[in-house]
Design goal:
This protein has eleven helices and 16 strands. It is an alpha+beta fold. The strands form three sheets. The chain has a ten-stranded mixed beta sheet with strand order 2-1-15-4-5-13-9-8-7-11. Strands 3-16-14 form a three-stranded antiparallel beta sheet. Strands 6-12-10 form a three-stranded antiparallel beta sheet, with no helix packed on it. The longest helix is centred in the N-terminal third of the chain and has 14 residues. It is globular, with a radius of gyration of 19 Å.
Length: 334
């Protein structure tokens, strides 16, 4: 039986016990199946199988059979008052998952251009790739070279920098927003599998994020109108039941969505992309000495009174904070 997993809700400061979806199945897959039937494990975490599972769970209404409209939204834990569409229009879990919200009203953002904001409604872990105590964490989560791709020319630029890992769960709003303003220096896809972002899976399988399919966007913020925090890598990582990552940047609300390309200037807080569907992860990498994380996130990270599976698996306090998209994450380092 899996132990509980807790996080801190930023808005209230409350310690919350998370009800992890499919926890027993994830434990079975990432322990017994992975060790005893590696071929089956590879098949179950493949892109093809992930797409099939996504269809079964999100398109034919299996998890909430017979529920539509307001009942469906409630069963999936969604505040329908945030949605752009009327609650009557939601008939499948996929429609709920891909919902648009009035983020300009319900997700406020610090107007200071130099403040880095969260790219998603998610639970965040922060850290440094340069701290000696984090060396074991690097082995468990990723190295910059692994995450950005072995052939990437950008990995050395983030050596010794900071990272933030944003874990999205199926009930969350799944549009990603820009954490900074700046110019797109590069955008590319690294192929891979579709592993779960469940904390148990992350502890069981080293460098799990670097094994999944992901889209890497490099943003130069040291340009006119930019956030002035150096290069920022935004990595969108697919996970179990994710069908696709759709790039749909919109400078104003969700109007006129478009693909990102090199040389494009993008604005902090604007929608960038959409996960289809499932659970997923965003990762931000920052260059050494360019940002300082918000103090409350630093304090929460090392709380000894919160039972986190990351803490148990890595032998030191490592606690997530649940926060909203466009809320402040980091400031320009002094």
């Amino acid at each position: 039986m899996q132990e509980q997993h807790q996080f801190i809700e930023r808005a209230s400061g409350a310690i919350i016990s998370e009800q992890l979806i499919g926890d027993q199945s994830i434990d079975l897959l990432y322990n017994r199946v992975r060790e005893q039937a590696p071929g089956l494990f590879r098949a179950l975490t493949s892109q093809r199988m992930s797409a099939v599972l996504g269809f079964l769970h999100f398109d034919i209404n299996l998890p909430v059979l017979g529920a539509t409209g307001l009942d469906l939204l409630k069963k999936m834990g969604v505040d329908w008052g945030e949605c752009l569409a009327s609650h009557q229009s939601f008939t499948t879990p996929r429609q709920v998952f891909e919902r648009q919200i009035r983020y300009w009203e319900c997700r406020p953002m610090d107007a200071d251009i130099s403040v880095v904001v969260s790219p998603a409604d998610a639970k965040v872990l922060i850290g440094s790739l340069d701290d000696i105590p984090e060396l074991f964490i690097k082995e468990k989560f990723f190295s910059a070279r692994e995450l950005l791709g072995p052939a990437s020319r950008w990995s050395e630029g983030f050596s010794g920098g900071n990272f933030a890992i944003f874990r999205l769960t199926p009930d969350k709003y799944h549009y990603n927003h820009l954490p900074v303003s700046g110019e797109v220096e590069d955008i590319y896809t690294v192929d891979g599998s579709c592993h779960s972002c469940n904390p148990g899976a992350q502890i069981s399988l080293a460098s799990i994020h670097a094994k999944n399919r992901r889209v890497v966007t490099i943003i130069n913020t040291d340009v006119q109108g930019g956030s002035q925090v150096g290069l920022v890598a935004m990595v969108e990582v697919v996970a179990l039941m994710i069908g696709d990552i759709v790039q749909c940047y919109s400078e104003h609300r969700y109007d006129d969505p478009q693909q990102l390309h090199k040389g494009m200037f993008v604005k902090k807080g604007s929608p960038k992309s959409l996960y289809r569907p499932g659970s997923s992860t965003d990762i931000l990498l920052f260059q050494q000495g360019r940002v300082s994380f918000c103090q409350d996130l630093q304090n929460n990270l090392v709380r000894p009174d919160v039972y986190s599976r990351f803490s148990a698996g890595l032998g030191r306090p490592l606690v997530e904070t649940d926060l909203q998209v466009r809320s402040s994450v980091a400031l320009v380092a002094n």
